[in-house]
Amino acid sequence: MKYSVVIEKTDNGYSAYAPDLPGCIAAGDSQVEVEELIREAIIMHLESLREHGDPVPEPQTSVALVEV
After folding, report:
1. Which residues of the chain have pLDDT under 70?
2. The whole model's pTM is what?
3. How many domains does the chain fold into?
4. C-alpha atoms less than 13 angstroms from C-alpha of 65 in its C-beta half-sphere
């Protein structure tokens, strides 16, 4: 599955979250690091949902870059 991830620059580095997986977040010093960490966070989040018998949300969020 492919989940959309939002990555934001912060004062201290980068943060990321997966809109289709509430509570699934990560923070890192660089964009590369936060991409690795959010991938790991998504994997762990999905494993936890499965272990607890909770439904795994299907990816629904799409991303578009809009030129202005």
Report:
1. none
2. 0.91
3. 1
4. 1
